[in-house]
Write a structure and sequence with these properties.
Length: about 160
């Protein structure tokens, strides 16, 4: 049986390649790297399971938000619309505010990792997802969003 496929989507080539190498070094996952939303959609189409079975060979996506042409949140919405909710998605981004959290959690992301990140947090996300904790991860991310929303609200009031 082959290793699960993880896709890294980030327009910063050095960042995407570094994330890809961290994941590859575990020896547990195959990695597909996309440097734009367009590349990511092409990879998803390429890895779609045929014969009416539905689904995709890509099981998890680590997705940056700030990208040209189509940002990560727009891509998240398109993936959910065109490929369903079977693919796990974790946001991996330097951009964080209430609106981004809201859009990410409404797309049922499994995690929201802020850059700069720790390799162990990245690997923990993969391991938890692939051991079957996806539902728990989505719920935890939503709860974390509620906490963040309160934090953002307090910051706005201080201004």
């Amino acid at each position: 049986m082959s290793n699960p496929i993880v896709m890294v989507v980030d327009d910063e080539v050095d960042v995407a390649n570094a994330i890809t190498n961290i994941i590859k070094d575990t020896g547990k996952y195959e990695v597909v790297t996309a440097y734009s939303a367009k590349d990511a959609l092409a990879q998803l189409k390429k890895h779609k399971v045929l014969l009416g079975l539905g689904g995709n060979k890509i099981r998890l996506i680590l997705l940056d938000i700030k990208m040209p042409e189509m940002d990560g949140l727009q891509l998240l919405e398109k993936i959910r619309k065109d490929f369903g909710e079977d693919i796990g998605i974790s946001m991996l981004t330097a951009w964080e505010d209430d609106e981004k959290w809201e859009r990410a959690t409404s797309g049922f992301v499994i995690n929201y990792i802020k850059k700069p990140f720790k390799s162990k947090d990245l690997i923990a996300t993969l391991e938890n997802f692939f051991k079957g904790d996806e539902g728990k991860m989505v719920l935890n991310t939503f709860e974390k969003h509620i906490e963040k929303r309160d934090e953002f609200s307090k910051k706005k009031k201080k201004r």
